[in-house]
Amino acid sequence: MSPAEERGALTPQPSLYEYALRLHRAEPDGRLPKGGYPLPDPPQRRGSLGWTEAQAAVVEALAPLLTDPDTVRAGDEVHHRLHELGVRDRHIHAAVAELPLEDEATARALGRRLARMGTSTPAVSVGLGLLARLGEPEDVPHLKILGLLRGFTRPAIQALTALDAPTAALVWLGNHVEGRALRHLVDALAARDDQTARTWLLEVSLEPRAVGSSTARRIAEAVRLADILREDPVDTRVLTQAGRLLSRMTSLRDYQAEILAYPQAVTAYDALVARASQLPPTLDHYATLLSLALDLHSGPSFLLAWRPGQREALLDTLESVLSTPAWSAVPAGEPTDPAERRRANWIRRAARQPFSARARSTRLRVEVAVRDPADPDIVETRLLIDGRPLVPEAFGRGPANSPEYLLDSGRLRAAAEPREVQLAEAYCTEGCCGALYVTVCREGEHVVWRDWRRPATPPSRQPPPELPEYRFNVADYDAEIARAENDRSWAWPARSTARLMAAGLRDRPDLLTRWDAQLGWVGTDFTDPDATVPSFTYWPGLAAGQKDKDGPWLQFIWTLPEDGTLPDARAAAALRRLASVDPKTYAEVRGGSREYAEALGFPWPERGCR
Questions:
Q1: Residue 446 to residue 456: CA distance in whole angstroms
Q2: How confident is the model at residue 443, as a pLDDT?
Q3: Residues 161/168, Cβ–Cβ less than 8 Å
């Protein structure tokens, strides 16, 4: 088929690929636009079919065309049929992922024609979906250009990932990252200036606020980090940055552990740990290596495709390095800087956790995991069954719940009466992406975990393994839960104070209700973990049993900064103050509304509520 025949079969307007290519060629030095280019015409949003009906309609419309050897005719028919259906692009992406492909060569040719010559977003969406399943290296340049158009970035990246992960990562970074330093990296990679990209990797500060877990993975893929780590020699600054990127990928703040989506994770881990002894023994390096060890031991990294004994060997190497006199001395001092002191204290608490815990062989093991204070995250209760971390394998949408929720409350204790327990919640909230539940009950000589509940997996994702009924020896189970409930070795002073205050307020709710207040939560400040923070809601009439649920209310936050007092004494003093002085006189308004604040006689914070 000649180019003239192809052009004649479609409308005379330029294809969306040509439109994007023209815009990109106008960029100086081949730079990628932040946020992508707008589509020449906004996608149509008509159509009233539901999700299932729309997918079925798309499959029915497209399936007969995938075996038509005349791709010109088939391409025109795709345009026509999708225009008549009026379905949304997301319905098309999902439907194409499920289409039967009896003749892959013909379907691939159709996908290429639609991607390169298509003039409508539905037609190009079909092309991208087919190339995500059938694409070959020759499709990479076209997919990269289409990924610069808003609306096509995600499907283009999906198609690129299997063909050329560094290019997929570059398109992702170009669309998402902000800030001069990160844009400088994108420009260097787009210009294929590997030396500048490597210099950037050596010198840039990977601050958690700028580089989240998704960004960390894409940087590692774009710069080919695993290949760099296999070189000889490797600059120790590269080792430092590699450790930070890998550690950042283990975070669950982006809903999933990006380390599991990084194809070169095992290679990168292997190469980095093999050279760990080359790093100077500093507080930052110790914290990074310990973070990696904790995740290899009981976090998502446990689930990577390790060879038999490979993960255990990496932990042995890290233990050997961190146990040497030079490294053991690192956290022994008392830094004057508060952030460094907090980090040194964390190292002292967690230093043995990934190594000594391996000696325990009970079927169920419960461990509280606290991340490096320099990269704060949720404190989670890791549940290991036969040594494997349950939540990232069975759920994967957020971390396990906190020890205050699962352990302090006694929720994991087994009783004759079955009890459903939420083990984890999606990072975005249960209402958005669900939660993981199990029913815990005691049956004779066993404790049983059964009747699992978790959200359904979208068709485009690999479903997690089926969850069986787990049976535990009752004596072993009770002993492990009691041990975990009484283990305070992971907690820092402010967190211990918060737990003691919460327990006191559970025992004596009148300490707040007398002031028309209801407890919200007690925890530590995310940005200042040394501060204990109780939250409560003021409901006028609560003490008299006349709370108006539709009336005005305000949320208050009471911040107790670190003062060197032991947690027991600090919590007791705070509870005594609540008993004698109305907390609304010293806590700050942080929620509700300006209207409610004025109605109740409280100033609304000028800086707004956080």
A1: 29
A2: 95
A3: yes
**124: closest CA among 163, 82, 94?**
82
pLDDT score for 55: 80
pLDDT for res 460: 55
For the four alpha carbons of 528, 398, 266 and 349, in that order, the dihedral sign comes to positive
* DSSP assignments along 528-577, one per residue: -TTSEEEEEEE-TTTTTT---TTS--EEEE--B---S--HHHHHHHHHHH
Residue owning tokens 């076209």: 142
Going by C-alpha positions, the residue among 581, 575, 609, 577 that lies closest to residue 594 is 609
pLDDT at position 258, please? 94
Paired tokens of 15:
């294809």
Q: At what angle do helices 104-117 and 71-85 cross, to 10 degrees?
A: 70
Closest to 145 (Cα-Cα) out of 133, 129, 159, 126: 159
Averaged pLDDT in 10-residue chunks for the chain of 610 residues: 42 85 90 90 65 81 88 87 81 85 93 94 93 96 96 94 94 91 88 83 82 93 94 92 95 83 96 97 97 97 97 97 96 89 95 80 91 88 96 91 94 95 88 91 96 79 82 96 95 96 94 96 90 96 86 95 93 97 96 94 76
**Residue closest to 449 by CA, chosen among 354, 358, 366, 353:** 366
- DSSP tag of 464: P
Full-model pTM:
0.89
Q: Is 429 left (phi over 0), alpha (psi -120 to 50) or beta?
A: left
Residue 361: burial class (beta carbons within 10 Å; 0-12, 13-18, 19+): exposed
The pLDDT of residue 3 is: 45
Strands 380-385 and 364-369: antiparallel
**Contacts (Cβ under 8 Å, ≥6 apart) of 413:** 440, 478, 481
Determine the Cα–Cα distance for residues 608 and 261; give it in Å rounded to an integer: 38
Give CA–CA dist 573/558, Å, rounded: 14
Helix/strand/coil (H, E, C) string of 387-413? Answer: CEEHHHHHCCCCCECCHHHHHHCCCCC
As a whole number of angstroms, the distance between CA 381 and CA 403 comes to 5
Closest CA to 251 of 296, 303, 209, 214: 214
Structure-token pair, residue 606: 């000028």
Distance CA 310, CA 266 (A): 9
CA distance 560 to 302: 37
Cα end-to-end distance, the chain, whole Å: 61
DSSP 432-458: HH-EEEEEEEEETTEEEEEEEE-PPPP
Residues 364/482, Cβ–Cβ less than 8 Å: no
Determine contact, residues 574/559, Cβ cutoff 8 Å.
Answer: no
Q: How far apart are CA 505 and CA 321, in angstroms?
A: 45
